[in-house]
Amino acid sequence: MASLLGGCDNSPHEDGAAASNTLYTAFSERSPRHLDPTASYYNNETPFTYSIYEPLYGYHYLKRPYELVPKAAEAVVAPRYLGAKGEVLPEDAPGEQVVESVYDIRIRPGVRYQPHPAFVPRYQHLDAQSLGERRSPWDFEEQGSRELVAEDFVYALKRHATTRITAPVFGVFSEYVIGLKAYGELIRQQDKVLRAGLDPASPDKPFLDFRRWPLEGVSAPEKYLLRIRLHGKYPQWKYWMAMTFLAPVPWEADAFYNQPGMAARGLSLDRWPVGTGPYMMVESVQDRRHVLKRNPNYHPDTYPCEGTPEDRTSGMLDDCGKSVPFIDSVVFKIEKEAVPLKAKFRQGYLDVPEVERPDYGVAFAVEKDDSPEVAREFEERGIRLPRFVDLSSHYLGFNMSDPVVGQGSTPAQQASNRALRQAIAIAIDWEEYLRIFPKAAGEPAMGPLPAGLFGSHNGTPEGLNPITHRLKNAPSHPNNPNDLIERRPIEDAQALMVQAGYPEGRDPHTGKPLVLNYDYSAQPSPERKAEFDWMIRQFAKLGIQLDIRATDNNQFQDKVRRGQHQIFVSGWLADYPDAENFLFLLYGPNGKTASDGENTANYANPAFDKLYQQLKLLDDGPAKQAVIDQMVALVREDAPWVWGTFPYASSAFHAWVKNGKPAIMIRDMLRYYRLDTVDRVTKQRAWNQPVLWPLLPLAVCVAVLVGLGRRAWRQRERAVALRRGSAADRAADAMKEGA
Predict the structure, then answer these.
(1) Of residues 531, 511, 515, 535, the one with CA closest to residue 523
(2) Which of 115, 329, 339, 725 could disulfide-pair with 22, CB 3.0 to 4.6 Å?
């Protein structure tokens, strides 16, 4: 019985895991494919890259709106502006006068890289044979380190010109960093020279040492001074310096991983990063398990002492000034299915479902609303589901190249098509959508800019979209400003349909209903069908028939690139907290069909594009606000999008996980989490008690079987004895007869 009870522990972790200072979480997709900071651009890679690397800047963990703070840099710096003759211009000089922006960034001294064999000189001269069976950096007997210097950032920026790996932002960087475009041509030629005569199919490639070729726009005048020179004025550059694209890369690591035999053994920056951040990768089993451990060389760092008023009342400031990171290890395990992942979280075996996913809180909140038992369980267990409106959007768009819903080729057609788009924008009731589909939790959008961005008025009466909404009679001091706003009545949309030439949704010449195509990239499911049915009803309010054309993502993307889509749904997660990062989605030269940009609507308005060029040169202030207001007014009138929703960022945390605050922009959250392991041990044990009553009938069955077995054995023994006795009697009788 003791052995049976010993097997009742259903923990998926090793013995003693709950008591260790280790955070357990999951990942549901494949393992991250690119942990090299030059290549990494996917959401599921960020828990690793932002914990291992340190860019120049980061974001304050608690403050909202988001505020840049120094990380590897000593301070967030303002650029120097130079004119046509090299003269220094004032900070408020018009952007058109700025020929060059110069960023002089002081690097924090005393910062050291994590332990790694790349910093051991004897490991810089290996061949495939001497590499032996080593499969990870931790298979090397000796580990080294060195101090971070400005040249490491120079090397990192140069690497964006590489031909060896994917460099997704080289196009953006080469537009601004002086000399980077020409540097890319130089590197391509030099790489051809290096690879001449070598087997192109071989995974081993000669070391492309970027130290050999200077880059005009990036230099290190001093050991701890990084200088970056940009064409013109580009205020958004400061946000790029908060991404791991500008994390330092030591040349030693690049050289180490380019040695023969490394690639064949999975030894690369893509899998084994080398950084100065709070954690380092110590275990990597592809598509199964990854482990981060505290970097023993991490520099002094502390938990923030400022935040929002809600942070103070919720205890988010209790660790003010304490050293971080708090947690020793973070274990990521694959969980391909949502049901077991959620079950393990509710059992307490996952501290956070998935670190980088800002939607689990909403999913669990829906389960709570649907079930009083689940709600009681979450309440009793102290599971927290914080949520905030964050910098993301979800919208329905029109292909402005389409003859029916698009821009139109004549003034009359432009006016009628615009009226059609505006009518649809009124008819689609996003407030109802949020009520019916609680998993899509968020706030209705009045335009392209979510609240929390400079320039946005969303969620206030000042931010009302007059095309789709109006003010209503309400108390002068409502509890919620949105109580002053209501969607325009469907009669307004029907009047616009008359202007569009489709009274009651029909062509007056043919009498046939207007049929529009809704192109959607999704796998069929009951939930999707419910959303499709809802969308069909919205168009039916205007007499329009909506044809759902659902395809897989590859087919959808191909259709969009060829401009053969009509109406579509899309969304955006901000790269950085600036209005430009949302408004560029409607910038004409970024058209998807013409230039494969992010403007999937193919919207092109010369007035908007001219204002966008002004916006890119402006710092936050009244002038920028005025430009943003003009741009938003233009797109509301043109209605290339049906302004949908701004989704919540929401996560799920157990009570023993302290300092959890969901956010889209914050990627280095692991260093701020803290565990109460005593609480975790207690609750895991209480929530996962072995269920013993099934053992009682099992024991009875075993006893019955044993009893029956013994009885059968005894009967068999008795029968054998009787047979032996009979045989002996017959033998005796035979002997007597013979005698």
Answers:
(1) 531
(2) 329
Place of tokens 């821009």: 407
Of residues 236 and 482, more confidently modeled: 236
Any idea which residue has 């502390």 for tokens?
302
In angstroms, rounded to a whole number, what is the distance separating the alpha carbons of residues 419 and 404?
A: 11
Whole-prediction pTM value? 0.87
- Give me the DSSP letters along 137-193: GGGSS--B--B--THHHHHHHHGGG-SSS--TTHHHHHHHBTTHHHHHHHHHHHHHH
Q: Are 329 and 293 in contact (CB under 8 A)?
A: yes
- State the amino acid at position 641 in one-letter form: W
Edge-first strand listing for the sheet containing 218-222: 88-89, 80-82, 100-106, 225-231, 218-222
Distance CA 314, CA 452 (A): 21
Our measurement of the distance from residue 250's CA atom to the centroid of its chain's CA atoms, rounded to an integer in Å, reads 26
Count of residues in the chain: 739
Amino acid present at 25: T
Predicted confidence (pLDDT) per residue in 93-114, tens digit: 999 999 999 999 999 999 999 9
Is residue 515 within a helix (H) or strand (E), and if so which, with residue range? strand 515-521
Q: How far apart are CA 263 and CA 259, in angstroms?
A: 8
CA Rg value for the chain: 33
Structure tokens of 466?
A: 């007059």
How many angstroms separate the CA atoms of 607 and 716, rounded? 102
How far CA 378 is from CA of 148, 242, 491, in Å, comes to: 46, 36, 44
Question: Tokens standing for 662?
Answer: 């969901």
| Token duo for residue 95 | 């952007």
- Could you give the CA distance from residue 505 to residue 512 in angstroms, rounded to a whole number? 9
What average pLDDT does range 39-54 have in this prediction? 95
In order, the DSSP letters of 67-88 are: -EEESSBSS--PPEEE-TTSPE
Alpha-carbon distance of 396 to 432, in angstroms, equals 15
- The span from the first CA to the last CA of the chain, in angstroms, equals 62
